[in-house]
Write a structure and sequence with these properties.
The structure is a single chain. By secondary structure, the chain is α+β, with helices and mostly antiparallel strands. Helix content is 15%, strand content 30%. The strands form 6 sheets. Strands 1, 2, 5, 6, 7 and 12 form a 6-stranded mixed sheet that branches. A two-stranded antiparallel sheet has the order 3-4. A hairpin with a 5-residue loop joins strand 14 and strand 15. The longest helix is centred in the N-terminal third of the chain and has 11 residues. It is globular and about 70 Å long. About 8% of the residues have low confidence.
Length: 278
Amino acid sequence: MSFNYAAAVAAAASQVDMNKASKGGEGYQPPAKGLARLRFVGYIECGKQKDEWQGQVKIKEKVKLIFELSGPKHAPREHDGNKIPHRITIEENLSLNEKAWFYKIFKAMNYNGEATHIAQLLGNEFLGEVIHKTSKRGNVYATLKGDAGYTIRAPYVEDPETGETRKVPAGPQLSEIRCFLWDYASKEMWDSIFIEGQYDEEKNEAGEVVRPARSKNVFQEQIKQAVNFEGSPIAEILEGAALGIGDEADAGEEQVVTHDEPTAGTETGEDDPLAGVS
């Protein structure tokens, strides 16, 4: 009996119109739900940002934590011969209050008690549960935060047969470590968080722009929007660089959310600004 391919083709053609070109690659695809091996690859202090919640604007100090995913369900994607890992970026208020999410994340990650600053944990391995949620625009995105809080934990599991605890190693690190410390900023640190490129604008079938073009350089741009950016260490460094004041002039001197609508590049977002960037 021969296969009736015509029926299958007709079904496919009724759902897919290949006359309609896609823009900007294949679009955002959230990493799969379930257990993921994590590697902490980014810590960026964004300064004091305007935070609107339930119609009220408050000033909150923000921080981003970037995790690279690996494991059977989260193998890196191939793009132009390069391996591009899945990543999830968390944005939270930078607070050490015992009830703050950031403090709870740090305590979970600092399971052996050896670190005094979360940046000391960059490059380390963890485990986490990837959860899918839906944004107000109806798009599915991935997060590491469930109803009970963040799922990040030590990279160990108990063997159900032997009862022994064993480590679950993350895959080889593919992302560059990105770190920006507000009070200890340097020009090199600033340059290291730059991301080249932009997302193209998106239009509906009527040709109306539903999402304008935007830069992928989300970290530097958010830092510049901080209400305390003016007069900050990095602002003074950038001003000095613009005036042609180099390191020679400083010789001898010591240089010392709860989430709502997804935003690009965060765990509540639909884009990875580091996609295609090692």
